[in-house]
Amino acid sequence: MNCEVKAKDRIGTINPIFTCQPAGAQYASIGVKDCIGIVHGGQGCVMFVRLLISQHLKESFEIASSSVHEDGAVFGALDRVETAVDVLLSRYPHVKVVPIITTCSTEVIGDDVDGLITKLEEGLLAEKFADREVHLLPIHTPSFVGSMVSGYDVAVRDFVKKFARKGEPNGKINLITGWVNPGDVKELKHLLKEMDIEATVLFEIESFDSPLMPDGKAVSHGSTTVEDLQSTGSAIHTFALNRYEGAKAAQFLEKKLKVPSTIGPTPIGIRNTDALLRKLSAVTGKPIPESLVRERGIALDAIADVAHMFLADKKVAIYGNPDLVIGLAEFCLDLEMRPKLLLLGDDNSGYVDDPRIKALQDNVDYPMEIVTNADFWDLEDRVKNKGLELDLILGHSKGRFVSIDYNIPMVRVGFPTYDRAGIFRNPVVGYAGATWLAEQMANALFNDMEVKKNKEWLLNVW
Ligand code: SF4
User: Fold this and answer.
1) Domains of the chain (ranges plus CATH)?
2) Which GO terms describe its molecular function (predicted)?
3) Is 169 exposed, middle or buried (0-12, 13-18, 19+ CB in 10 A)?
């Protein structure tokens, strides 16, 4: 077999690709309107994650911490959550939703967050905030299992589980975008609008690309409301675009509230976007409009300009969130490129059964490695010591030093990307995303040709 899926063959991690589960829960929670999460753990479990998200989106927003100290780590720290909920609700009168996100320390202590929520609902909320609509929910994200990816998946499921109600069918679809950027949300909403499909877009973060208005106020907030979450049980269908970032919620809605679901495709590249539109059309009965056929044509034209001449046969390493990595690998193959190394930063045992990975194993006709539980040493070691030759790296900013140290051009994609301007604004999904990705990859290679004086004259005659 040309394409092998293997786990990292070392114990320990050198420069991780992912951070821990609570980070994913925090990213999901910022997509909910009037919501501020309390992360129950040490302050660093919020500070560094919030910084990462803030660096990535170049926006400010609130997440709270129960700020557990030594005494709490030994004797339990539920009293700090009680205080945190009280202070948060007193200080932020607009807040309606407070997820309490656990961490490694508070899961090890065994703090009974679920029990505390019942106590707070019957006590604090009923007595001090009786005139307020307030929803508390537990999200269990111990960091010693999974990764930020599974943390996002768990949080999305728990929000939906908390709020979804079965009602009269509302004729809408649920769209669970997965861990995406504001630019992706904008593009997905555009595709739905062109298809004339009404959708509840869940954990919607488009407004994190927020304007600076004349009155000086800039507000970044999630746009998915409590009502949106409640209505998910009355939808005609759920589309979870990412298998590892939203499928749990889709499965819950299907199993408990009989809302049928489709998992995937992650609409990266022309092929996957076509597949998504066909599925949307089949479920809703709405035809794919001429306007999208035209957009597809524009994307194909842009790709044709660069693919065969510049991208073909280029050797690529890709790392990051699994749906993104797999989608990018599929797109690269369509562009005649050669993804040589895919790095997935956690040990999810389901990757080997992913039909998209099986398809890569069946179809790739050159040596490709897929490494799970991978870290950046898996990339650097292969480049530095094992003769892996690369023309391009696709991944987030944490891998930039491999690119810098070994002079390999890189396109920033995924989370977090803080060392290039405006990455969050551009979609990687849909036809617009396919165009953007192909052109970014081509431009990175052009720049490299000039810097290394490697056939840069070609660009004069292109
Ligand atoms: S690994 Fe544990 S202590 Fe560290 S940030 Fe994650 S949850 Fe907090």
Assistant:
1) 3-14+291-461 (3.40.50.1980), 21-146 (3.40.50.1980), 173-287 (3.40.50.1980)
2) nitrogenase activity
3) exposed
